[in-house]
Automatic annotation (TrEMBL):
InterPro entries: 5peptide_repeat (IPR001646). The chain crosses the membrane at residues 37-59. Pfam families: Pentapeptide_3 (PF13576). This is Pentapeptide repeat-containing protein. It comes from the Bacteria. It comes from Kibdelosporangium aridum. Keywords: Membrane, Transmembrane, Transmembrane helix.
Length: 403
């Protein structure tokens, strides 16, 4: 403020002094008039200088005010973010503690708490999915295997078990109740991974708000009690070593990228009607009473080796993309007797590319038993990751490495 006053005074004094000096050099009769005009002009210069400084100070004050407001907003946003993260961490921690409870209702509450957390905070959805998958990977023996069919037949934990000398864990106390907990975990996954839109609709319309897009499932060695994956869409999934105790329904499901079914056991059936495998699908050393791939879509490398089925594997009206990416050097392995026709098959508008129809040729092999690749298989380049040995009709291949 003092600097502004000094500046105005200096400008007024300098302007007035210069103008008075000029006025003194004028005509003698008009010097008084010229001196008055010089004084007025000098004062006007001072007033203008003061106004300019006032505008400058006002602009600076506004700038400082805006900076302070922006800083306050940043602090508020940071504080809100920190509070939200603390709240999420607290909810997550409590939910995890509930999953470790010996009481099934508390474990169910933990599952629903995680579901709510993931629904309200999309950035944490993969973490919640990872937790649910980890829970399903925990060792579990279904009630049928243990000979118990109701909760009443399951004994309560005794004093010795409570003291820690007996086997602890959720499924060690109430297998039937643990069955319901696992069933709930599976249904939470399927509910939020279900997308009924086809490929065209995904570009034109938004997904259901409950749909969790781009998830990865790690269900290796999991025991899955009632797997209904109808119309679900997932990015990548690994079911290696999993057991489906009541069968598995993948009808109309979509795997955008890779999926592994190595050493999978379907106690009843594996239903893959109109499934779309977006890139690689690996079935090795898998067993099922029945496998249905009718009208399935194989968009990439397909490996069906050492698969056994009590009934013939169904591949009627299945299609395979003819110009799929072979950048890894991988080819396809179909069940004995099955091959892909090189004739392009027209599909609906949502399926682009050149597609070949899977056809069954009359061979001596039983289409329901796949003990290893035969002459009907597309051969792999020996230079790739697939290792082959033996004669032409008895060749065995090792499964590709999981990545």
């Amino acid at each position: 403020m003092l600097v502004g006053v000094v500046a105005v005074a200096a400008a007024t004094w300098a302007a007035t002094g210069w103008l008075l000096a000029e006025a003194d050099q004028g005509i003698l009769d008009k010097r008084a008039e010229l001196r008055m005009a010089a004084i007025r002009t000098g004062l006007a210069v001072g007033a203008g200088t003061g106004a300019a400084l006032g505008l400058l100070l006002a602009a600076r004050r506004q700038w400082l005010s805006e900076r302070a407001q922006a800083h306050h907003e940043e602090v508020a946003v940071t504080a809100e973010f920190d509070a939200t993260e603390r709240r999420i961490t607290d909810l997550y921690t409590k939910a995890i503690d509930q999953l470790g409870s010996e009481r099934a209702p508390i474990r169910l509450g933990g599952l629903y708490a995680l579901e709510r957390l993931a629904q309200n905070h999309p950035g944490h959805r993969q973490t919640v999915v990872d937790v649910l998958c980890a829970y399903l990977r925990m060792p579990y023996v279904p009630p049928e295997a243990g000979g118990r069919t109701s909760v009443e037949e399951t004994p309560l934990v005794d004093a010795e078990a409570s003291s820690g000398s007996a086997t602890q864990g959720p499924d060690a106390l109430h297998p039937v109740e643990e069955f319901q907990v696992r069933l709930t975990a599976e249904r939470i996954l399927t509910t939020h991974l279900r997308d009924f839109r086809d490929a065209d609709a995904r570009e034109k319309s938004s997904a259901d708000p409950r749909f969790w897009e781009g998830m990865f499932l790690d269900l290796r060695d999991a025991t899955l009690v009632s797997w209904d994956w109808t119309s679900c869409r997932i990015d990548t999934a690994n079911f290696t070593g999993a057991r489906f105790t009541d069968g598995a329904n993948f009808a109309h499901a979509t795997f955008d990228r890779d999926v592994w079914f190595n050493q999978v056991q379907f106690d009843k059936y594996g239903h893959f009607y109109r499934v779309r495998f977006g890139r690689r699908v690996l079935f090795t050393q898998a067993h099922s009473r029945r496998l249905n791939f009718k009208e399935a879509r194989f968009c990439g490398m397909t490996w069906l080796s050492e698969v056994s089925s009590d009934e013939p594997i169904e591949l009627e009206d299945a299609r395979a993309l003819l110009d799929f990416n072979t950048g890894w050097g991988f080819e396809r392995q179909w069940p004995p007797g099955w091959t892909v026709s090189n004739e392009n098959v027209d599909l609906d508008s949502s399926q682009s590319g050149c597609w070949g129809l899977l056809v069954f040729q009359d061979v001596s092999s039983d289409p329901g038993e796949i003990s290893g690749p035969s002459d009907a298989f597309h051969r792999c380049d020996p230079a790739t990751n697939y290792m082959s040995s033996g004669s032409t009709t008895g060749t065995t291949y090792s499964a590709p490495r999981e990545v």
